């Protein structure tokens, strides 16, 4: 192996690795890139002695003053890091496995690129300290029950109906600003209702529906992506391609009434735009300035409008979609307002992925694994694995019935 590669500092390889693993133009986007960058930084800090127990000094010999290089790496280093991850940091066993896999993947890439001569991280002795993986993703087990789904959809439906009715029945002599405030409240309630119904009934992944700041290709669905007459929606799937998702009947009416209320200037408008005031204020200022309006004129127009979202609608200034984190904040607010009883170790609200998982359970129970897999855009094998508790429960019922039948026979 070239001495140049062995003497290379570890972090000199990080950016090239992250570009290779990233998404979008230049490899700048993607959740994997973001998570891998975080774990590589932690590994580099640990290797330098800046993270770990008080007596940990890093992987460089004590009598040497330099950054950790590839020459310092061997299977004993990765064994020690596995032990560090599984130590007293309070991490769940599956989280430890996940964090180690990021470092192991980088190690494999380093072998292919000529930085290392062997995939030390995958050797049995290196992985021995890792806890066993029970196959579950940490925190990803919530599923909306039928009662929770009905309670949440009923709450947002009533809230939207009240807000829209209040706006549409305003007296003709209502002050313009008050009328704008009522319109804004109706738009927000209608958007929240549409979002909840889509998450509850389509089983579309929230990352396929909304904007991901780390992946430029995921800009959130637009009205041009929806066909309410056909009951379909084009989304950018997890498998890195556009595909049609179904919009079942419960979703059509909330989306249709919401679109009528929004009356978007173009079909390129996001279905679920952000209502964040700071974001919209900056967007409106910048766009109107680019159109040649003077700052004082912009301020006057904003003051005459109750909310920047309404000015954006009037001027066709397209806002960004809400993010996946934004959807979680909305669901936290709505779950609390609806007074829904939630018993989950990680989430005290109905999380977005729980809507997809809850719909998966409905489909598996009603139509079996094959149909559920098609609707969930997953392999049947994966659906069987993730919803195996349903089959186990059904088999348990069969066993109970068999026992009752046999034990009832006189001996």
TrEMBL record:
GO terms under biological process: DNA integration; DNA recombination
Domain Tyr recombinase: 151-400
Protein's recorded name: Site-specific recombinase
Database matches in InterPro entries: CB, DNA_brk_join_enz, Integrase-like_cat_sf, Integrase_catalytic, Integrase_recombinase_N, SAM-like_dom, Tyrosine_recombinase_XerCD
Domain called Core-binding (CB): residue spans: 5-111
Keywords: DNA integration, DNA recombination, DNA-binding, Plasmid
Molecular-function annotations in GO: DNA binding
Source taxon at top rank: Archaea
Species this protein is from: Natrinema pellirubrum (strain DSM 15624 / CIP 106293 / JCM 10476 / NCIMB 786 / 157)
